[in-house]
Structure formats: C-alpha cells, structure tokens
Specification:
heterodimer, A: 7-stranded mixed sheet, 11 strands, 0% helix, 53% strand, B: 53% strand
Amino acid sequence: KAGVTQTPRYLIKTRGQQVTLSCSPISGHRSVSWYQQTPGQGLQFLFEYFSETQRNKGNFPGRFSGRQFSNSRSEMNVSTLELGDSALYLCASSRTQGYDTEAFFGQGTRLTVV
Amino acid sequence: AQSVTQLDSQVPVFEEAPVELRCNYSSSVSVYLFWYVQYPNQGLQLLLKYLSGSTLVESINGFEAEFNKSQTSFHLRKPSVHISDTAEYFCAVRSSDSSYKLIFGSGTRLLVRP
C-alpha cells in the first residue's frame, strides 16, 4: 500500500512568487492535514480537509490556502512568498476525521524562498 | 488552549544506555497521545499511541510510553538505545480542546553516541 506522496520534494522560489504543493493521501483516506515545520516555530498546523471541505484552519495569514479534490488529493497554495515561508511543509492523511484516528505523514516538501 | 511541552531540546546518551524523553500536556478533557519520530530529511513516523485502555503502550522497536493522567505526562522510554535511534522525537496530542488538530511539542533530539 503506497504511503502519503508529496510533490515536489524540493522547491526554490523567489520572494513575491506563488507556489502550489501537492499531496496524495493513502488510498481510502479522506482526511488531509497540512503542517509547516521550521526550526524556530516547530510544527504548526495549517489546515485540514475532509471530504473536500475545510474543517479546521490554523493561525496563518490568508496567503496560505488549500483545497481538496474529490479523489482526496490536496493542494496548498502560498501567494506572495516571503523569506519566512521557507520551511518543510508536511502533509498527513487519515482514514477518517476523529480524535483517535492515526495520521500518516508524507516526506514533506522543502520550500526555500530567496 | 491545548499545549504540549517537551522540556528537553536535546538528549545525548551513550549506546546501550537507557533513555527517557519527557512530554507533558495541558488538557482537562479526554486526550489521545502520540509519539512521532523524524529522521533527517524525512517526514514523521508514528512510533506509538495511547488511545484508551492500558496506560503503558509499546512500539515494535523497543520504545514504550506511559500515560499518567494525574501528572498529565506521556514520557517515552527505551531501556537500551542504539545508534540508529538517533533522530528527533515529537510528542503530540489530540483532544476535543483542539478539535481534530494534532498539537505537537517542540521536539527532542536524541543523540546516541558510541
């Protein structure tokens, strides 16, 4: 069974540009969450999608957005990139939405903003 | 708001020695607790989880963690570490306080020396 796939693995962008990251969850999983990981702030929750609907959103500016498609694949978009957006972006998929459900993480997309 | 505290940012230990990585959480409601491990340039892998039942949970590679409700702790232990255990370890909690979000601690880097 394939794991969570994130593409691309590495990305270099210039300030002011926008970027789209992709996440393919494990087959059968309907919930996808996104996290930003930085040395200074650690792991911070961005948002969660379940059945194409955003169910939860973290404390990030509106430049960060996402969506989920009918096949559960998800994308996140960051517009007007800033240097501080450089981070490892992790996607996690879960079978359902629930407190006891296990989250499986992808290997992440390393975004560098120059 | 729900929070998770990992007091030790780095724990150096010699190979074959025992280790304990500490984790405390803040919540007055039912919680579900997780330990994740992250190797360099990788995503997060679930190490073990406490959902209900026995307060002592074990992983397949020798780690164990004990849920202590009175002390709001979920410390991770291993009686004898290997070089290959060198990684960053994250404690996480999910509860009704945080909706379905996984709230992570700041991480503890375990450094196993020969």
